[in-house]
Hints:
The complex is a heterodimer. By secondary structure, chain A is mainly beta. The two termini of chain A are 22 Å apart. The mean pLDDT of chain A is 95. The longest helix of chain A is centred in the N-terminal third of the chain and has 8 residues, at 14-21. Chain A is 5% helix and 54% strand. By secondary structure, chain B is of the alpha/beta class. An eight-stranded parallel β-sheet of chain B has the order 2-1-3-8-7-4-5-6, sandwiched between helices. The mean pLDDT of chain B is 94. The chains are: A mainly beta, B alpha/beta. The A-B interface holds A 91-94, 107-110, 112, 114, 119, 121-126, 128, 150-153 and B 62-66, 70, 73-74, 77, 129-132, 134, 136-137, 153-157, 160-162, 165-166.
Amino acid sequence: MKTLLADGPTGLYATEMRQFGRLAGHWRTEITYYPAGSPPRRVDGEWEFGYALEGRAVLDVWQWPGRADLPPEGRAPDQECGLCVRIWDQRLRLWRFTFHGTRGDILHMYAREIGDEIVMERAAPGALVRWTFADIAADTFHWRNERSTDGGRTWRLDQEVHAHRLT
Amino acid sequence: MATAVELIAAPWNLGLRPPEPGHEPGAWRAPEALLAAGLEDRLRPARLVELDRPPYDFDAQPATRVRNGVTLREHTLRLAGTVREALAASRFPVVLGGDCSVLLGCLLGARHDGRCGLVHVDGHNDFRHPGDGGSGPALGNAAGMDLALATGRGELLLTHWPRVGRPLVADEDVVQIGDRDEDADLPFTRFTARQIERVGIADLGEQVRAHLDRHGLDRVWLHVDLDVLDERVLPAVDTPGRPGMDFAQLAELLSSLVGTGRVIGLDITVYDPERDPDGAHAAPIVDCLTSALTPLATVEAHA
Protein backbone atom coordinates (compact mmCIF):
# COMPACT_ATOMS: atom_id res chain seq x y z
CA MET A 1 0.00 0.00 0.00
CA LYS A 2 2.85 2.40 -0.72
CA THR A 3 0.57 4.39 -2.98
CA LEU A 4 -1.89 5.16 -0.17
CA LEU A 5 0.14 7.53 1.99
CA ALA A 6 1.76 10.80 0.94
CA ASP A 7 4.56 12.89 2.40
CA GLY A 8 2.66 16.16 2.22
CA PRO A 9 -0.30 18.04 0.81
CA THR A 10 -1.08 18.54 -2.84
CA GLY A 11 -0.39 21.99 -4.21
CA LEU A 12 -4.10 22.26 -4.97
CA TYR A 13 -6.19 23.74 -2.17
CA ALA A 14 -3.09 24.19 -0.05
CA THR A 15 -4.86 26.40 2.48
CA GLU A 16 -7.65 23.91 2.97
CA MET A 17 -5.33 20.90 3.14
CA ARG A 18 -3.42 22.61 5.92
CA GLN A 19 -6.54 22.73 8.11
CA PHE A 20 -6.36 19.03 8.90
CA GLY A 21 -2.83 18.47 7.61
CA ARG A 22 -1.33 20.28 10.57
CA LEU A 23 -2.44 17.33 12.67
CA ALA A 24 -0.15 14.96 10.73
CA GLY A 25 1.78 12.86 13.23
CA HIS A 26 1.24 10.54 16.14
CA TRP A 27 -0.66 11.59 19.26
CA ARG A 28 -1.30 10.17 22.71
CA THR A 29 -4.91 10.63 23.73
CA GLU A 30 -6.78 10.94 26.99
CA ILE A 31 -10.36 10.08 26.13
CA THR A 32 -13.34 10.75 28.40
CA TYR A 33 -16.85 9.49 27.70
CA TYR A 34 -19.83 11.13 29.38
CA PRO A 35 -22.68 8.61 29.17
CA ALA A 36 -26.12 9.87 30.15
CA GLY A 37 -26.98 8.75 33.65
CA SER A 38 -23.58 7.19 34.34
CA PRO A 39 -20.28 8.50 35.66
CA PRO A 40 -17.65 9.61 33.14
CA ARG A 41 -15.29 6.92 31.83
CA ARG A 42 -11.59 7.66 31.13
CA VAL A 43 -9.41 5.61 28.76
CA ASP A 44 -6.08 6.18 27.02
CA GLY A 45 -5.44 5.73 23.33
CA GLU A 46 -3.51 6.80 20.25
CA TRP A 47 -4.42 8.88 17.24
CA GLU A 48 -2.32 9.01 14.10
CA PHE A 49 -2.86 11.43 11.21
CA GLY A 50 -1.22 11.59 7.80
CA TYR A 51 -1.61 12.73 4.22
CA ALA A 52 -2.77 10.23 1.60
CA LEU A 53 -3.82 9.90 -2.02
CA GLU A 54 -1.15 12.17 -3.51
CA GLY A 55 -1.75 14.68 -0.75
CA ARG A 56 -5.45 15.12 -1.55
CA ALA A 57 -6.73 13.40 1.59
CA VAL A 58 -5.98 13.36 5.30
CA LEU A 59 -6.42 10.02 7.03
CA ASP A 60 -6.33 9.12 10.66
CA VAL A 61 -6.41 5.94 12.67
CA TRP A 62 -8.22 6.21 16.00
CA GLN A 63 -7.68 3.55 18.61
CA TRP A 64 -7.91 2.79 22.27
CA PRO A 65 -6.04 1.26 23.79
CA GLY A 66 -2.95 2.16 21.83
CA ARG A 67 -0.77 -0.46 20.24
CA ALA A 68 1.54 -0.74 23.25
CA ASP A 69 -1.35 -1.39 25.60
CA LEU A 70 -3.22 -3.86 23.43
CA PRO A 71 -3.75 -7.13 25.37
CA PRO A 72 -2.25 -10.36 23.91
CA GLU A 73 -5.70 -11.70 23.12
CA GLY A 74 -6.40 -8.65 20.98
CA ARG A 75 -8.88 -5.81 21.14
CA ALA A 76 -11.98 -6.38 23.27
CA PRO A 77 -15.40 -5.85 21.66
CA ASP A 78 -15.94 -2.53 23.40
CA GLN A 79 -12.49 -1.20 22.52
CA GLU A 80 -12.29 1.02 19.49
CA CYS A 81 -10.28 1.08 16.29
CA GLY A 82 -11.30 3.03 13.23
CA LEU A 83 -10.16 4.74 10.07
CA CYS A 84 -11.19 8.27 9.15
CA VAL A 85 -10.92 9.62 5.61
CA ARG A 86 -11.14 13.34 4.83
CA ILE A 87 -11.18 14.71 1.31
CA TRP A 88 -11.61 18.39 0.43
CA ASP A 89 -14.51 18.72 -1.99
CA GLN A 90 -13.96 21.84 -4.05
CA ARG A 91 -17.49 21.64 -5.53
CA LEU A 92 -18.98 21.85 -2.03
CA ARG A 93 -16.18 23.94 -0.57
CA LEU A 94 -16.01 21.76 2.49
CA TRP A 95 -14.51 18.50 3.70
CA ARG A 96 -16.24 15.22 3.18
CA PHE A 97 -15.48 12.83 6.00
CA THR A 98 -16.13 9.15 6.61
CA PHE A 99 -15.38 7.10 9.71
CA HIS A 100 -15.01 3.36 9.20
CA GLY A 101 -15.10 1.43 12.45
CA THR A 102 -13.86 -2.12 12.66
CA ARG A 103 -17.23 -3.13 14.08
CA GLY A 104 -18.78 -2.25 10.74
CA ASP A 105 -19.99 1.19 11.74
CA ILE A 106 -19.70 3.92 9.09
CA LEU A 107 -20.37 7.61 9.58
CA HIS A 108 -20.49 10.47 7.07
CA MET A 109 -19.84 14.05 8.10
CA TYR A 110 -19.04 17.45 6.57
CA ALA A 111 -16.41 19.79 7.95
CA ARG A 112 -15.36 23.41 7.71
CA GLU A 113 -12.89 25.55 9.54
CA ILE A 114 -14.91 28.03 11.58
CA GLY A 115 -12.83 30.60 13.39
CA ASP A 116 -9.96 28.74 15.01
CA GLU A 117 -11.85 25.44 15.20
CA ILE A 118 -12.55 22.70 12.67
CA VAL A 119 -16.18 21.71 12.96
CA MET A 120 -17.43 18.42 11.59
CA GLU A 121 -21.15 17.79 11.53
CA ARG A 122 -23.74 15.22 10.57
CA ALA A 123 -27.47 15.40 10.88
CA ALA A 124 -29.28 12.33 12.12
CA PRO A 125 -33.03 11.98 12.68
CA GLY A 126 -33.74 14.24 15.64
CA ALA A 127 -30.17 15.31 16.32
CA LEU A 128 -27.16 17.22 15.08
CA VAL A 129 -23.80 15.67 15.97
CA ARG A 130 -20.59 17.71 15.93
CA TRP A 131 -17.00 16.62 16.30
CA THR A 132 -14.85 19.69 16.87
CA PHE A 133 -11.09 20.12 16.85
CA ALA A 134 -10.20 23.05 19.07
CA ASP A 135 -7.21 24.69 20.76
CA ILE A 136 -4.95 23.29 18.07
CA ALA A 137 -1.30 23.94 18.89
CA ALA A 138 1.92 22.33 17.70
CA ASP A 139 1.92 19.66 20.38
CA THR A 140 -1.62 19.59 21.76
CA PHE A 141 -5.23 19.81 20.69
CA HIS A 142 -8.66 19.25 22.17
CA TRP A 143 -11.51 17.36 20.50
CA ARG A 144 -15.09 17.14 21.57
CA ASN A 145 -18.09 15.12 20.45
CA GLU A 146 -21.38 16.91 21.08
CA ARG A 147 -25.02 16.35 20.29
CA SER A 148 -27.90 18.78 19.95
CA THR A 149 -31.54 17.77 19.91
CA ASP A 150 -32.87 21.32 19.62
CA GLY A 151 -31.40 22.35 16.31
CA GLY A 152 -28.12 23.63 17.69
CA ARG A 153 -29.39 25.88 20.49
CA THR A 154 -27.87 23.67 23.17
CA TRP A 155 -25.26 20.95 23.01
CA ARG A 156 -24.53 17.95 25.24
CA LEU A 157 -20.91 16.82 25.57
CA ASP A 158 -20.75 13.07 24.90
CA GLN A 159 -17.00 12.62 24.67
CA GLU A 160 -13.78 14.63 24.68
CA VAL A 161 -10.13 14.05 23.96
CA HIS A 162 -7.00 15.80 25.11
CA ALA A 163 -4.23 14.95 22.65
CA HIS A 164 -0.47 15.29 23.16
CA ARG A 165 1.94 14.91 20.26
CA LEU A 166 4.33 11.94 20.33
CA THR A 167 5.93 12.48 16.93
CA MET B 1 -28.99 55.73 -16.76
CA ALA B 2 -30.95 52.50 -17.11
CA THR B 3 -29.76 49.39 -15.30
CA ALA B 4 -29.51 46.35 -17.54
CA VAL B 5 -31.21 43.15 -16.50
CA GLU B 6 -29.48 39.78 -16.53
CA LEU B 7 -31.84 36.83 -16.62
CA ILE B 8 -30.59 33.73 -14.81
CA ALA B 9 -32.61 30.56 -15.29
CA ALA B 10 -32.26 28.24 -12.28
CA PRO B 11 -34.41 25.23 -13.16
CA TRP B 12 -34.38 23.35 -9.90
CA ASN B 13 -36.84 21.77 -7.56
CA LEU B 14 -34.39 20.50 -4.95
CA GLY B 15 -36.17 22.15 -2.05
CA LEU B 16 -39.62 20.67 -2.61
CA ARG B 17 -41.06 17.34 -1.55
CA PRO B 18 -42.33 14.99 -4.26
CA PRO B 19 -45.99 15.78 -4.98
CA GLU B 20 -46.56 12.03 -5.15
CA PRO B 21 -44.24 9.06 -4.72
CA GLY B 22 -41.68 8.86 -7.49
CA HIS B 23 -42.76 12.13 -9.13
CA GLU B 24 -40.53 15.20 -9.11
CA PRO B 25 -42.01 18.61 -8.36
CA GLY B 26 -42.65 20.57 -11.55
CA ALA B 27 -41.22 23.94 -10.46
CA TRP B 28 -38.01 23.27 -12.38
CA ARG B 29 -40.01 23.88 -15.56
CA ALA B 30 -40.84 27.49 -14.65
CA PRO B 31 -37.88 29.24 -16.32
CA GLU B 32 -38.60 27.55 -19.61
CA ALA B 33 -42.31 28.35 -19.36
CA LEU B 34 -41.73 32.00 -18.52
CA LEU B 35 -39.23 32.44 -21.31
CA ALA B 36 -41.65 30.77 -23.72
CA ALA B 37 -44.30 33.23 -22.55
CA GLY B 38 -42.14 36.12 -23.73
CA LEU B 39 -40.20 37.18 -20.66
CA GLU B 40 -36.93 37.60 -22.55
CA ASP B 41 -38.56 39.66 -25.28
CA ARG B 42 -40.27 41.86 -22.72
CA LEU B 43 -37.31 42.47 -20.42
CA ARG B 44 -34.65 42.58 -23.17
CA PRO B 45 -31.88 41.42 -20.83
CA ALA B 46 -28.23 42.16 -21.47
CA ARG B 47 -27.59 38.46 -20.99
CA LEU B 48 -29.49 35.24 -20.41
CA VAL B 49 -27.70 32.56 -18.41
CA GLU B 50 -29.29 29.13 -18.28
CA LEU B 51 -27.94 27.00 -15.43
CA ASP B 52 -28.02 23.24 -15.51
CA ARG B 53 -30.91 21.36 -13.99
CA PRO B 54 -29.60 19.54 -10.91
CA PRO B 55 -30.50 15.90 -10.36
CA TYR B 56 -33.34 15.34 -7.88
CA ASP B 57 -32.83 12.66 -5.26
CA PHE B 58 -35.88 10.98 -3.74
CA ASP B 59 -33.81 9.40 -0.97
CA ALA B 60 -31.90 10.97 1.89
CA GLN B 61 -28.35 12.06 1.08
CA PRO B 62 -25.48 11.28 3.48
CA ALA B 63 -25.33 13.07 6.83
CA THR B 64 -28.06 15.59 6.07
CA ARG B 65 -31.74 15.69 7.01
CA VAL B 66 -32.48 18.24 4.31
CA ARG B 67 -33.80 16.77 1.08
CA ASN B 68 -31.16 17.07 -1.65
CA GLY B 69 -28.96 18.91 0.85
CA VAL B 70 -25.64 18.02 -0.76
CA THR B 71 -26.84 18.80 -4.27
CA LEU B 72 -28.35 22.01 -3.01
CA ARG B 73 -25.03 23.17 -1.59
CA GLU B 74 -23.22 22.48 -4.84
CA HIS B 75 -25.75 24.32 -6.97
CA THR B 76 -26.08 27.16 -4.48
CA LEU B 77 -22.37 27.82 -4.94
CA ARG B 78 -22.77 27.75 -8.73
CA LEU B 79 -25.74 30.11 -8.67
CA ALA B 80 -23.88 32.43 -6.31
CA GLY B 81 -21.04 32.67 -8.81
CA THR B 82 -23.44 33.64 -11.59
CA VAL B 83 -25.20 36.25 -9.45
CA ARG B 84 -21.85 37.66 -8.38
CA GLU B 85 -20.74 37.99 -12.01
CA ALA B 86 -23.95 39.79 -12.93
CA LEU B 87 -23.54 42.26 -10.07
CA ALA B 88 -19.88 42.78 -10.91
CA ALA B 89 -20.97 43.74 -14.41
CA SER B 90 -23.38 46.31 -12.88
CA ARG B 91 -26.38 44.33 -14.06
CA PHE B 92 -29.60 43.60 -12.19
CA PRO B 93 -29.89 39.81 -11.84
CA VAL B 94 -33.38 38.35 -12.17
CA VAL B 95 -33.21 34.73 -11.08
CA LEU B 96 -35.97 32.51 -12.40
CA GLY B 97 -36.57 29.61 -10.02
CA GLY B 98 -37.12 26.97 -9.32
CA ASP B 99 -38.16 26.69 -5.76
CA CYS B 100 -37.40 29.02 -2.88
CA SER B 101 -34.09 27.37 -2.07
CA VAL B 102 -32.55 29.43 -4.91
CA LEU B 103 -32.57 32.25 -2.37
CA LEU B 104 -29.40 30.90 -0.76
CA GLY B 105 -27.37 31.19 -3.94
CA CYS B 106 -28.77 34.64 -4.65
CA LEU B 107 -27.82 35.95 -1.22
CA LEU B 108 -24.43 34.29 -1.26
CA GLY B 109 -23.66 35.94 -4.59
CA ALA B 110 -24.92 39.29 -3.33
CA ARG B 111 -22.91 39.05 -0.11
CA HIS B 112 -19.65 38.93 -2.05
CA ASP B 113 -19.66 42.72 -1.98
CA GLY B 114 -20.68 43.12 1.64
CA ARG B 115 -23.81 43.53 3.68
CA CYS B 116 -27.06 42.85 1.87
CA GLY B 117 -30.55 42.97 3.32
CA LEU B 118 -33.45 40.77 2.30
CA VAL B 119 -37.04 41.58 1.50
CA HIS B 120 -38.76 38.19 1.60
CA VAL B 121 -42.10 38.33 -0.18
CA ASP B 122 -43.73 34.98 0.43
CA GLY B 123 -47.09 33.56 1.49
CA HIS B 124 -45.22 31.51 4.09
CA ASN B 125 -42.43 32.52 6.42
CA ASP B 126 -40.20 29.59 5.32
CA PHE B 127 -38.72 29.54 8.80
CA ARG B 128 -38.90 25.82 9.52
CA HIS B 129 -35.74 24.51 11.12
CA PRO B 130 -34.82 21.84 13.64
CA GLY B 131 -34.80 24.35 16.48
CA ASP B 132 -38.50 25.16 16.09
CA GLY B 133 -39.65 21.56 15.91
CA GLY B 134 -38.64 21.46 12.26
CA SER B 135 -39.62 18.50 10.19
CA GLY B 136 -39.26 15.82 12.87
CA PRO B 137 -38.11 12.45 11.61
CA ALA B 138 -38.99 13.25 7.99
CA LEU B 139 -36.59 14.92 5.62
CA GLY B 140 -36.79 18.70 5.70
CA ASN B 141 -37.62 20.59 2.52
CA ALA B 142 -35.38 23.57 1.92
CA ALA B 143 -38.12 25.50 0.15
CA GLY B 144 -39.86 25.73 3.51
CA MET B 145 -36.63 26.48 5.34
CA ASP B 146 -34.95 29.08 3.16
CA LEU B 147 -35.38 31.98 5.55
CA ALA B 148 -34.16 29.89 8.48
CA LEU B 149 -31.13 28.72 6.51
CA ALA B 150 -30.38 32.20 5.19
CA THR B 151 -30.37 33.56 8.73
CA GLY B 152 -28.00 30.80 9.86
CA ARG B 153 -30.36 28.26 11.43
CA GLY B 154 -29.84 24.65 10.48
CA GLU B 155 -27.14 22.31 9.34
CA LEU B 156 -23.61 23.47 8.70
CA LEU B 157 -23.95 22.05 5.18
CA LEU B 158 -26.41 24.80 4.26
CA THR B 159 -25.55 27.59 6.67
CA HIS B 160 -21.75 28.04 6.50
CA TRP B 161 -20.42 29.51 3.28
CA PRO B 162 -17.10 30.53 1.77
CA ARG B 163 -16.06 34.15 2.52
CA VAL B 164 -19.33 34.95 4.27
CA GLY B 165 -19.40 32.31 6.99
CA ARG B 166 -22.74 32.45 8.78
CA PRO B 167 -25.37 33.87 8.42
CA LEU B 168 -26.03 35.05 4.89
CA VAL B 169 -28.29 37.74 6.31
CA ALA B 170 -28.78 39.00 9.84
CA ASP B 171 -32.23 38.82 11.42
CA GLU B 172 -32.38 42.60 11.69
CA ASP B 173 -31.72 42.96 7.96
CA VAL B 174 -34.78 40.92 6.96
CA VAL B 175 -38.26 42.16 6.12
CA GLN B 176 -40.88 39.46 5.59
CA ILE B 177 -44.00 40.32 3.60
CA GLY B 178 -47.15 38.30 2.97
CA ASP B 179 -47.00 35.46 5.50
CA ARG B 180 -50.44 34.02 6.24
CA ASP B 181 -49.44 32.75 9.68
CA GLU B 182 -50.60 35.53 11.98
CA ASP B 183 -49.49 33.75 15.12
CA ALA B 184 -45.89 32.97 14.21
CA ASP B 185 -43.31 34.53 16.53
CA LEU B 186 -40.46 35.49 14.23
CA PRO B 187 -37.33 37.56 14.84
CA PHE B 188 -37.90 39.75 11.79
CA THR B 189 -39.79 42.85 10.81
CA ARG B 190 -42.86 41.48 9.10
CA PHE B 191 -46.06 42.47 7.41
CA THR B 192 -48.54 39.61 7.32
CA ALA B 193 -51.15 39.03 4.63
CA ARG B 194 -53.88 40.34 6.94
CA GLN B 195 -51.89 43.47 7.80
CA ILE B 196 -51.36 44.14 4.10
CA GLU B 197 -55.11 43.88 3.51
CA ARG B 198 -55.60 46.56 6.15
CA VAL B 199 -52.86 49.02 5.21
CA GLY B 200 -52.80 48.64 1.41
CA ILE B 201 -49.86 48.28 -0.95
CA ALA B 202 -48.89 51.95 -1.16
CA ASP B 203 -48.59 52.28 2.60
CA LEU B 204 -46.76 48.95 2.85
CA GLY B 205 -44.22 50.14 0.28
CA GLU B 206 -43.64 53.32 2.27
CA GLN B 207 -43.20 51.40 5.52
CA VAL B 208 -40.67 49.07 3.96
CA ARG B 209 -38.80 51.99 2.44
CA ALA B 210 -38.71 53.70 5.84
CA HIS B 211 -37.43 50.51 7.45
CA LEU B 212 -34.60 50.25 4.93
CA ASP B 213 -33.76 53.89 5.60
CA ARG B 214 -33.68 53.43 9.37
CA HIS B 215 -31.43 50.39 9.12
CA GLY B 216 -29.09 51.88 6.56
CA LEU B 217 -29.73 49.09 4.09
CA ASP B 218 -28.43 50.39 0.78
CA ARG B 219 -28.27 46.94 -0.82
CA VAL B 220 -31.24 44.59 -0.63
CA TRP B 221 -32.10 41.31 -2.34
CA LEU B 222 -35.77 40.81 -3.22
CA HIS B 223 -37.18 37.29 -2.93
CA VAL B 224 -40.58 36.72 -4.49
CA ASP B 225 -42.38 33.45 -3.90
CA LEU B 226 -45.42 33.60 -6.14
CA ASP B 227 -47.50 31.84 -3.52
CA VAL B 228 -47.86 35.28 -1.95
CA LEU B 229 -50.57 35.66 -4.56
CA ASP B 230 -54.04 34.56 -3.57
CA GLU B 231 -54.73 30.99 -4.68
CA ARG B 232 -57.71 32.26 -6.64
CA VAL B 233 -55.26 34.29 -8.72
CA LEU B 234 -52.45 31.74 -8.99
CA PRO B 235 -53.22 28.17 -7.93
CA ALA B 236 -50.23 26.76 -9.85
CA VAL B 237 -47.79 26.76 -6.95
CA ASP B 238 -46.64 24.09 -4.51
CA THR B 239 -48.67 25.34 -1.53
CA PRO B 240 -51.39 27.78 -2.58
CA GLY B 241 -53.35 29.72 0.01
CA ARG B 242 -55.40 32.78 0.85
CA PRO B 243 -55.63 35.63 1.56
CA GLY B 244 -53.05 37.01 -0.80
CA MET B 245 -52.31 39.70 -3.32
CA ASP B 246 -53.55 39.89 -6.88
CA PHE B 247 -51.14 40.46 -9.75
CA ALA B 248 -51.69 44.22 -9.84
CA GLN B 249 -50.93 44.54 -6.13
CA LEU B 250 -47.80 42.42 -6.41
CA ALA B 251 -46.58 44.43 -9.40
CA GLU B 252 -47.23 47.67 -7.50
CA LEU B 253 -45.31 46.41 -4.46
CA LEU B 254 -42.35 45.14 -6.43
CA SER B 255 -42.21 48.28 -8.52
CA SER B 256 -42.25 50.38 -5.38
CA LEU B 257 -39.40 48.38 -3.88
CA VAL B 258 -37.31 48.40 -7.06
CA GLY B 259 -37.98 52.12 -7.27
CA THR B 260 -36.11 52.71 -4.02
CA GLY B 261 -32.89 52.04 -5.93
CA ARG B 262 -31.77 49.75 -3.13
CA VAL B 263 -32.82 46.45 -4.64
CA ILE B 264 -29.83 44.90 -6.39
CA GLY B 265 -31.56 41.82 -7.77
CA LEU B 266 -34.52 39.54 -7.33
CA ASP B 267 -35.59 35.95 -7.60
CA ILE B 268 -39.02 34.69 -8.50
CA THR B 269 -40.00 31.20 -7.44
CA VAL B 270 -42.41 28.30 -7.15
CA TYR B 271 -44.56 28.73 -10.26
CA ASP B 272 -45.25 25.14 -11.31
CA PRO B 273 -46.18 24.72 -14.98
CA GLU B 274 -47.26 21.14 -14.31
CA ARG B 275 -50.10 22.61 -12.24
CA ASP B 276 -50.92 24.94 -15.11
CA PRO B 277 -51.46 22.52 -18.00
CA ASP B 278 -52.82 25.08 -20.46
CA GLY B 279 -50.17 27.66 -19.52
CA ALA B 280 -52.74 30.29 -18.62
CA HIS B 281 -50.77 31.70 -15.70
CA ALA B 282 -47.40 32.26 -17.36
CA ALA B 283 -48.50 35.41 -19.22
CA PRO B 284 -49.74 37.33 -16.14
CA ILE B 285 -46.52 36.43 -14.31
CA VAL B 286 -44.52 37.87 -17.20
CA ASP B 287 -46.72 40.98 -17.22
CA CYS B 288 -46.27 41.40 -13.47
CA LEU B 289 -42.51 41.04 -13.59
CA THR B 290 -42.16 43.36 -16.56
CA SER B 291 -44.24 45.99 -14.83
CA ALA B 292 -42.31 45.57 -11.60
CA LEU B 293 -38.98 46.17 -13.29
CA THR B 294 -40.07 49.29 -15.16
CA PRO B 295 -38.28 51.56 -12.63
CA LEU B 296 -34.96 50.08 -13.72
CA ALA B 297 -35.28 52.22 -16.82
CA THR B 298 -34.72 55.30 -14.70
CA VAL B 299 -33.18 54.17 -11.42
CA GLU B 300 -29.68 52.87 -10.97
CA ALA B 301 -29.26 50.06 -8.48
CA HIS B 302 -26.75 50.40 -5.68
CA ALA B 303 -24.48 47.59 -6.94
